[in-house]
């Protein structure tokens, strides 16, 4: 495995050449990443040349429709699913909300249960919990209050009676950051007769997973955190898509990728999502050459390239934070077991600390990050919040060193 060429990576992101950004160290990537050049190019081209109703029988419309189809086809190849199984929506929160309305009709009036966790971002927790108001049983898979860890034994107990029909959980939490064993969880749920909904928002920026191999029935993530436009992307497998009632116009119910999109899609942003795959392909070609590979194989290689780089940069930061007695590291101490999203509870309010870091050119933030449930379960004072430091593969070793130096001064 070659090492990630960070200079090449950063050359693909216009933000690093922009005055006012180029001298800043960006550690707020869990809130949204910089956008890669190919996405910006495609979005600009669509608005300039193809901003018409797509698929109509004239050149501009045909070009726009073809580019939208290209985005769906190529993302599906990267994620190991069928092209019909890739849906776009205005955000992951909106996609989850629509999905929950379908589940409400599907499970309403039955004794079926939904398993949720208190490790989630609220988008993959609140919509399911509200179905309890409809008489649907909600079961909570709870984190360990010290570590934030989700034990498989806890899930096993919730599945034991066979009434659970849906298990909703994160690939990793946006504050705990521990990588949950998605394939094993999906296998357990399937054996118990339940479908799975996996929130991949906090994981996907670190390498898009092969959803087919994971076995998830639904996998959701946000393109704007994966170097793309502001779209929610949902891989929904055929079996669950057919089981759930249509949420779109009745005449679109026979098309899986339209079935859970009740509003008109953003044509330009869908087309621009093909630029995400352009970027991944460019990374593959730069590091691995022109050797033939399937889209899923390219995706896996780029995933591993990103993760290896992130792990190497993350461990020194974790060691530094864990070595202080005035902060509490949320989640695992081992870089290989987590995403590079580092939330710390301080002995003071966290937001003023993020403001001080901002003055030093360290861009980060503080608060609860819609992770009220896990932070509460772990005894974190929500008034103080947590300081969150998050990076991705375009972060350099020098920037992490700069962060540690700044933290040492501010704390």
From TrEMBL:
<dbReference type="InterPro" id="IPR015424">
    <property type="entry name" value="PyrdxlP-dep_Trfase"/>
</dbReference>
<dbReference type="InterPro" id="IPR015421">
    <property type="entry name" value="PyrdxlP-dep_Trfase_major"/>
</dbReference>
<feature type="domain" description="Aminotransferase class V">
    <location>
        <begin position="26"/>
        <end position="403"/>
    </location>
</feature>
<dbReference type="InterPro" id="IPR015422">
    <property type="entry name" value="PyrdxlP-dep_Trfase_small"/>
</dbReference>
<keyword id="KW-0663">Pyridoxal phosphate</keyword>
<dbReference type="Pfam" id="PF00266">
    <property type="entry name" value="Aminotran_5"/>
</dbReference>
<protein>
    <submittedName>
        <fullName>Cysteine desulfurase</fullName>
    </submittedName>
</protein>
<dbReference type="InterPro" id="IPR000192">
    <property type="entry name" value="Aminotrans_V_dom"/>
</dbReference>
């Amino acid at each position: 495995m070659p090492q990630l060429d960070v200079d090449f990576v950063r050359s693909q992101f216009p933000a690093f050449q922009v005055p006012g950004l180029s001298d800043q160290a960006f550690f707020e990537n869990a809130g949204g990443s910089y956008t890669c050049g190919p996405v910006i190019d495609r979005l600009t081209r669509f608005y300039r040349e193809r901003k018409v109703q797509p698929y109509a029988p004239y050149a501009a419309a045909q070009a726009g429709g073809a580019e939208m189809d290209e985005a769906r086809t190529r993302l599906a190849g990267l994620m190991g699913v069928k092209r019909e199984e890739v849906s776009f929506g205005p955000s992951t929160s909106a996609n989850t909300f629509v999905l929950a309305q379908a589940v409400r009709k599907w499970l309403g009036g039955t004794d079926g249960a939904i398993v949720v966790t208190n490790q989630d971002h609220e988008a993959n927790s609140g919509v399911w919990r509200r179905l309890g108001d409809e008489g649907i049983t909600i079961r909570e898979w709870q984190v360990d209050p010290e570590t934030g860890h989700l034990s498989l034994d806890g899930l096993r107990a919730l599945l034991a009676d066979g009434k659970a029909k849906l298990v909703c959980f994160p690939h990793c939490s946006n504050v705990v950051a521990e990588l949950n064993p998605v394939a094993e969880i999906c296998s357990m749920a399937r054996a118990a007769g339940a479908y799975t909904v996996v929130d991949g928002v906090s994981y996907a920026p670190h390498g898009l997973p092969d959803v087919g191999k994971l076995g998830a029935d639904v996998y959701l993530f946000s393109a704007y955190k994966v170097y793309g436009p502001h779209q929610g992307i949902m891989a929904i497998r055929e079996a669950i898509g057919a089981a759930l009632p249509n949420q779109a116009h009745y005449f679109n119910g026979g098309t899986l990728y339209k079935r859970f999109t009740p509003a008109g899609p953003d044509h330009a942003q869908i087309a621009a999502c093909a630029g995400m795959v352009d970027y991944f392909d460019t990374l593959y070609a730069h590091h691995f050459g022109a050797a033939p590979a399937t889209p899923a194989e390219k995706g896996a290689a780029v995933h591993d390239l990103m993760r290896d780089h992130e792990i190497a940069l993350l461990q020194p930061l974790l060691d530094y934070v864990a070595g202080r007695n005035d902060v509490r590291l949320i989640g695992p101490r081992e870089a290989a077991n987590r995403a590079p999203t580092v939330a710390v509870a301080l002995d003071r309010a966290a937001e003023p600390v993020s403001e001080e870091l901002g003055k030093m050119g360290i861009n980060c933030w503080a608060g609860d990050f819609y992770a009220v449930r896990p932070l509460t379960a772990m005894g974190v004072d929500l008034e103080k919040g947590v300081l969150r430091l998050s990076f991705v593969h375009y972060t350099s070793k020098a920037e992490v060193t700069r962060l540690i130096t700044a933290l040492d001064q501010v704390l």
